[in-house]
Amino acid sequence: MKGFFSIGLVRGILGGTAGTGTGAGAVMLIRMAMGLPAWDEGQVWAAGIVAGVAGYLIALGLFNYWARWFVGARDRFEPNMPSRSWTRFLSVSTDHKTIGIQYLATALIFLPVAVALQLIARADLSKIGFSLNPETYTALISDHGIVMLFIVAIPAFAGLMNYFVPLLLGAKDMAFPRLNALSFWLVPAAGILMVTALGAGGFDTGWTIYPPLSVSYQPLGMNLVLIGAYLAGFSSILSAVNILTTVIKLRAPGMGIFRMPIFVWTAVSTTILSLLFTQFVSMALLFVLLERTLNMPFFGTAGGGQPLLYQYMFWFYSHPATYIFALPGLGIISEIIPVFARKPLFGYKAVALSSVGIAIGGTMVFGHHMFAAGIPALLRIPFMITTMLVAVPTGVKVFAWVATAWGGKLRMGSPLLFVLSAIVIFLIGGLTGVIQAVVPVNLYVHDTYWIVAHFHSVLFGGFLFPLMAGIYYWFPKMTGRRMSEGLGRAQWWLMTLGSALLILPMFVLGLDGLRRRTADYSNMDFRPLVIATAAGGFLIFLGLVVLFYNILRSRRKGAPAWDNPWEGRTLEWMTSSPPPYDNFPATPVVTGEPYDYGISSRPYADVTRSNPSKNR
Amino acid sequence: MASRPGIYRNTARMNKRVIPFILLAAVLSAGAVYFLLHIYNIPNAASVERASIDRALKVLISIAAVVFIWVVTALAYVVIFNRQKRGDTGFGAHITGNRKLETVWTVIPLLIVIGVSFYGGFVLRDITPEPPPGVLNVDVTAFRWGWKFYYPDYNVNSLYLELEVNRQVEFHMATLDVVHGFWIQEFGPKMDIVPGMMMHLDVTPDKTGQYLLVCDQLCGAGHTGMTAPVYVVSSGDFQTWVTQHKAPPATTPASTAFSTAGEAAQLGSAVYGSYCASCHGATGQGGAGPRLVGAGNTLAKYNTAQGLQGFISAAMPLNAPGSLSAAEYGELTAFILVQNNWIGSGTTFDPAGLSSVPIK
Questions:
Q1: What is the pLDDT of residues A392-439, one digit of tens each?
Q2: What is the pLDDT at residue A609?
Q3: 3-state secondary structure B293-307
Q4: A interface mutation test: which of B47, B117, B185, B276 has the most A CBs within 10 A?
Q5: Any chain A CB within 8 A of the CB of B68?
Q6: Nearest C-alpha of chain A: how many angstroms from B353?
Q7: Are A396 and B110 an interchain contact pair (Cβ–Cβ within 8 Å)?
Q8: Contact A213/B178, CB-based, under 8 Å?
Q9: Angstroms from B278 CA to nearest CA on chain A
Q10: Closest chain B residue to the Cα of A594, Cα to Cα
């Protein structure tokens, strides 16, 4: 029994329950003291959930170190070198590799859930014999969107960044290991809140949560989603501080910024964006929650609020957010192509700086989400121009990838297959992005399936396929075993065909005039294309099933990977698989270029010589 | 990082293989552009603005298609001919970059997007014309979940849109509750309707027929069904429709059916229920519109009851200002005054003598 309670998650759940009771009870007491009826669904649950999350974090032990330091108690040894048992993933760990896998596993558990929510809605829309009521339909698609963005996309890449940024830098761990643990453990709480929202009445606002719809007309589920998204945003900010500090302070000796792998460059660009902009959406969501529970009139016109203010704050983050999702993906593509083409990355500096260019450009384009929403007419053209300019650094990346592969000696392993699909799909997303940035065209395609098709191609090409490539590429490093190549190919076929079937019909549907977020349509000409889209989604779901089978199978039975299965040059391949607790046998000293394939006399780094003076 | 000598050994063989791919890409792009510009049609265009948008869409998709085809053809070439042979453990050519090439593929896209921006600006000017004299004004009211229309030039109320072909129409749009979106696919542009704001949209229908107005901004359970029919008819038919649907002339017999403020407020309460409650709440507590009754209302800025009455008569209801009779405006004022206890119910009420009634 003692062993059972030593699992962090068990204590966390108990602490969460206790916290919920305390918070809810406190609010009910205050209400009674004020002479009000004790029960108010919104207020009591909101306080209960916030206190519950606090209880869960405390019971997990995330604040133990800081609490002991605060009261002056002696620092107790933290069990940083955990058992090899899988249960270590259910407890707090400060090891960046464990946290990386915790993040990835959380994202991969919620990914099929979010796909399944959408598949139910798609089946309804295909009119194959059952029908949902419109509230359920909209709740499903809204939850699909928000879970995908906050609990799948951001945490999945946070996982890969957590695991591989320190390794790629030659560091022993992240700069702030305890903060790292805190930022991870917020995510499962957020995810569970967002999914249980469906059981608490759901919410039919779309993932954008525009007031006044989200303020006045939504059941309790809306509160759960708001708190969940706030927690996820908080986690994202903490993890951004951590990764940025790690990159600035913990690079191996000899690693100037122009010797950093591109994945690190994209991690920096991403984290700068998260750090600068996440608070805007967090505040906007918090304001909606306060307006819902305490009648503070931020956005309601009745009290002098302004609904458009929410949209500005929301898109101020949520446009840069698309780059937060996509940039690490572009980094993974840039990592994998040189390794599998056996050829140096073409134009390293341009590719590195283009990530920063995309990040800077991406901060100035949010207005293009509101061309039809009443922003001052004079601002439409400037926002159109800034949006288009982002296409230039993005183009630099795509052309550099093609030039890298050109004249190379391609090894068609599954990571490269996923990368090739990613490039093609991302290109569709990027090019349609330029088209719809043109204001008159935007006024036509806004809020139609064209937009849905566009951002799904950006996210498939910039997030989903690079994530798959990254998993196949780095799985041997994380586990010491290789994944099955045959299953990898099967998954690649399923997901590539599925994506084509899912995305392309939606562009046509949009141009033909089908609105997004509608639970029904009367024009039966739309039906074949709607069915094609649903079938594409189903193929992708099957692909995920194959992926999970491959992961579970290869973890036990995969061929041994040894240290460097892909013959890569970057630092993560210069240590064992999986790496030891301190990552490297000795502090690596970087002496060459990361992608100098073809000149074996110039290795990237030396990990064997001991270097006590620079030891970190 | 200059390229090193000796790496172009295979150049001649590569060139021979590249030529068919260049031809393939050229043929495919030409075919795609021809298809997009001359064969493909986006269905159901019925306005001047929509024609401009369709043309812009086809031009832009053509440009994108050409870029897409060239990049994907290059990738296909690489995948087919640049694979590593079995047993080969060597490397590809050691090329780390090419300043000239990189400049070219930065500058050319830059020029393309600048050109596209200018083009987009011109098309935007085409589809957002200034309202000329003789424009048909239509006041649009959106609410969960339906539409109401009022033609101020003709004093016509309607639950569907009746428009005149080849005559520019300007929609003045307001919402009673949440954000809605105004879109008639056949006409092209759309516009969100944000609470507390008056939104405007100009289009010129150029084809008679029946179309559908839809709400394109998610607004709750009834969103999908929030539609209204749109009829575009000839000039003659439109005039006939107007004469048939004109609201009966305001034959307001100066209704002095009250003498005290309480009686006037009683009548005003009914007027309030039909025209104001949807925004300002059933008891004046506020909603999409500001609060009118009780602590926190903002009416003190009008100083006197006369100032308040003047504002209401000129600006309310938001979707059809000035559409009520003078008597109704008087009754409304009495209703608000009594609800706030700014005037006693038993006091004699004279709509013309309100300057002496202060608002606190």
A1: 999 999 999 999 999 899 999 999 999 999 999 999 999 999 999 999
A2: 65
A3: CCCCCCHHHHCEHHH
A4: B117
A5: yes
A6: 30
A7: no
A8: yes
A9: 12
A10: B96
Q: Which long-range contacts (CB under 8 A, 24 or more apart) does B340-343 make?
A: B340/B293, B340/B294, B340/B297, B340/B299, B342/B305, B343/B261, B343/B305
| pLDDT surpasses 50 at A310 | yes
Question: HSE of B144 in the Cβ direction (CA atoms, 13 Å)?
Answer: 16
| CB contact B90 to A (< 8 Å) | yes
B188 and A444 within 8 Å at the Cβ level: the answer is yes
Where do we find the tokens 């330091």?
Answer: A69
CA B152 from centroid of its chain's CA atoms = 20
Q: Does B46 contact chain A (CB < 8 Å)?
A: no
CATH of domain A94-610: 1.20.210.10
Residues from chain B contacting residue A437 (CB–CB below 8 Å): 120
**Subunit contact B74:A402, Cβ cutoff 8 A:** yes
DSSP of A152-202: IIHHHHHHHHHHHHHHHHT-SS-S-HHHHHHHHHHHHHHHHHHHHGGGGT-
Rounded CA separation A294/A282 (Å):
17
A96-125 vs A134-147: helix axis angle to the nearest 10? 150
Helices and strands (H, E) in chain B, number of each type? 8, 10
Interface mutation vs chain A, best among B49, B217, B227, most A CBs within 10 Å = B217
pLDDT digits (tens, 9 = 90+) for A481-511: 999 999 999 999 999 999 999 999 999 999 9
d(Cα A330, Cα A333) in Å, to the nearest integer? 5
The two three-digit tokens of residue A204, written as one number: 């039919």
* Residue of chain A with shortest Cα separation from B186: A513
Average pLDDT value for chain A: 93
Closest CA to A151 of A195, A88, A202: A195
Task: Please tell me the distance in Å from A223's CA to the nearest CA on chain B.
Answer: 17
Question: By C-alpha distance, which of A393, A405, A437, A87 is closest to A265?
Answer: A393
Distance between CA atoms of B223 and A214, rounded to whole angstroms? 14
User: Could you tell me the pTM of the whole model?
Assistant: 0.87
Write the pLDDT tens digit of every residue in A530-566: 999 999 999 999 999 999 999 999 999 999 998 999 9
| Strands of A269-387, DSSP E | none
- Tokens for B128? 């957002």
Mean pLDDT across the stretch B45-50?
Answer: 96
Domain boundaries of chain A, sorted by first residue: 1-72, 94-610
Q: Are the beta carbons of B68 and A204 separated by less than 8 Å?
A: no
Measured in residues, chain A has a length of 616
Q: Which residue of B has its CA nearest to A424?
A: B72
Quick one: which of A544, A525, A520, A355 has its CA closest to A467?
A544
From chain A, the residues in CB contact with B126 under 8 A are 440
Nearest chain B CA: its distance from A167 CA (Å): 24
CB contact under 8 A, A344 and B190: no
What amino acid occupies position A492?
W
Token pair in block for residue A574: 């210069």
Determine how many CB atoms are found less than 10 A away from the CB of residue A312.
Answer: 17
Quote the ipTM score. 0.93
The verdict on a CB contact (< 8 Å) between A515 and B97 is: no
Q: Strand pairing partners for A401? A: none
Pairs of residues, one from chain A and one from chain B, whose beta carbons lie less than 8 Å apart:
278
Sign of CA dihedral A597, A600, A601, A602: positive
Nearest by CB to residue B56, choosing from A205, A342, A438, is A438
Maximum separation of any 2 CA atoms in chain A, in Å? 81
Query: Which residues, 6 or more positions from A35, have their beta carbon under 8 angstroms from its beta carbon?
Result: none
Q: Which residue on chain A is closest to B222 by alpha carbon?
A: A134
- Residue B216: list chain A partners with CB under 8 A: 446-448, 515
